[in-house]
Amino acid sequence: MKAEPIERALHGIGAPLPRLEDPRLLTGLGRYADDEVRPDLLRGYVLRSPVAHARIRSIDVSGALEVPGLVAVLTGEDYAADGLGLMPCVSIPPTITGRTYHKTPFPPLESERVLAVGSGVAFVVAETLAAAMDAAERIVVDYEPLPAAPTVEAAIEPGAPLVWPEAEGNRCFQHEMGDAAQTAAAFEGAAHVVRARVRSQRVAGNPLEPRAALGVFDEGEGRWHLTSSASNPHRIRLLLAEHIFRVPAHRIHVVAGDVGGGFGTKGGLYPEEILVLWAAQRIGRPVKWVSDRSEAFLSDFNGRDQLADAEMALDADGKVRALRVVVNHNLGCQLGPSTAHPPLVGCRMLSGVYAIPAMHVEINGIFTHSRTLTTYRGAGRPEATLVVERMMDLAAAQLGMDPVAIRRRNFIQPAQMPYRTAIGETYDSGEFEACMDAALELADWNGFEARRAESARRGKLRGRGLSCYIEVCATISDRMEVRFDATGGLTILAGTFSYGQGHHTSYAQMVHEWLGVPLDRIRFVQGDTDKIANGRGSFGSRSMTVGGSALKAACNQVIERGRQVAAILLGRSPESLAFADGHYRDTADPATSISLDKVARATYAWGSPKPLPAELWSGLEGVGHFSANPQNYPNGCYIAEVEVEPDTGEVKLVDVSAVDDVGTVVNPLLLEGQIMGGIAQAAGQVLKEAVVHAPDGQLLTGAFTDYAMPHAADFPRFRLALRPVPTQTNPLGVKGGGEAGTVGLPPAIVGAIVDALRPLGVRDIRCPATPLAVWNAIQEAHP
Asked: In sequence order, what are the residues at sequence separation of 6 or more whose Cβ sits closer than 8 angstroms to the Cβ of residue 497?
């Protein structure tokens, strides 16, 4: 008995437990979508448009029909003839839909007009992938090229080619936040006004596992079965049932096994998932499609891509009076399920951690001849943080202030919590200045000049940058279930979905903490819509908050139901029993106790020691729900140092220090991995990554030879610390932690580069800060 608290300390909430998933995954025993094999399996291949904008005059498939092994060539006309639905957009809220926004037809195959390089025009199905590819090469598509506007800058120019004729100025929607009149008045009396254009470039998600989908149609049951690399199987089922096949959801079965990363890009429905199911039904055989890496650049939805024009009004002492921002966010050519989420959610965070009394934000969703936008790790919050933190740095430089001092002057203070920003967001908790002070100490801020001098001796320019961030995490509701079996083993049936986050480990720790069940007796199940009654998946750093809180509610149900059984078995009243460390004990006689394990077994036993009523003699389980309303607000401070080689423009990231407030920490080891992953993606975005289009819309970054990704050698060791302020918005006190690095770090790296180049006259730089971009900035500032 005395060992129980020690065991909980080693394996319960707060313990740095290594991932329980890893032995299986690291020994090659994982099960991914492409591992799924069915008898009589066919392979599918998508023929894609090589031009960004064109009318389709005709599609001649006759040459493809001669290829041995060809089974079918399906076109957009075939799809329309079968009467199936179009790809939906479910991310534009009533505040937008109540006004004017332009919907976009989005069939899985185009039959009249292509709108981006990579648009699907035919789905070829054959006995082998080689045969399908051979047949696709023989299809002749007659394109009538049209002018294209592939970037947001091009699309908002007067007279730009229109993606959709009815969308004037290529604007899908416009949304406003804050008070325009109040903000204008604040600007009129300002001592200083700082203006800047802040660009967050388009990036590709590039998960380690490319997307894959296998479709089966069971004619006997009248059901479609989809195995996918998606990270939100229940959402996929819902969209397929409601919008595509228009059938009850129980006729759609979606399974997602192990998923090799996603970062938000695998969270919504894709055309290829529709195509394999449609083809499987038409042909009567299973059909699999697997993306290769180059195809992923053409077919995966992209992230970021925002142009923000910002103005900040300040008093003479550096106190911010107002902030005004006009955002033009690239939505791509068609609205996918999550397209509008990044700009509409991200811009809610444009006040940052600062008490800005007046704000006005205008958000324009812009169509371009580029691939559809979706969520990508951070989903709008990195863009917003880059805007507000760059404005703070630029204001400090214009006023001759220290970047630390100007932030300190404008922080929201703990005594002001809960704090409602001028654009309507209410922060529940946070100690922003204390986080910054902890980060300054961790980074040895005061010792920087010595490091700068040492770098100068080696011919390098050293700079440092600071970023204080806040983001909004956790959304909507979720369902979690725990179920004992007849031997005392317990299964967690998760509505969330883990694709690298380590939910098996985290949730098992929670159950161990609350119920005392040993870790080796806990099974974790997710990702099968026939096994899991309902689920919302994982996005927006919601799983520990929403899933964890629902799991606690499920465990509480188990405890209360078990208490009734324990009372009968012990001959005590339920009210007299307390539960702790996996045991029910009589509060008046602690020696009288029974384990939860025995209680659970008794609910299944054929011959229980004491008779149980029918309602207790049917197993022990609990179902919990939780809704994230209000949401929570992780925050923190990131500091970066860089060295710049002035002759070549090469930037080396030499130090990263971070202090994060993510509330209660379930597993610090897993959290550290999440923060490090976010740091890597943030550095890649700032220094290397960009989806680039030629003026005619041709994709110039279609492979890793053109799209630069960060390597291990690009990173220093990270100095990470936590300063948790538990939130009261959920019973665990948890705030999201999965996206902290991607949100917090980018402005710090940009600020460090500018700080290094300031002696050469450089005042700002756009991302990615490649060696060429930095070298050009040096030449322009110091010709």
From this structure: 231, 232, 233, 256, 259, 503, 526, 527, 535, 537, 538
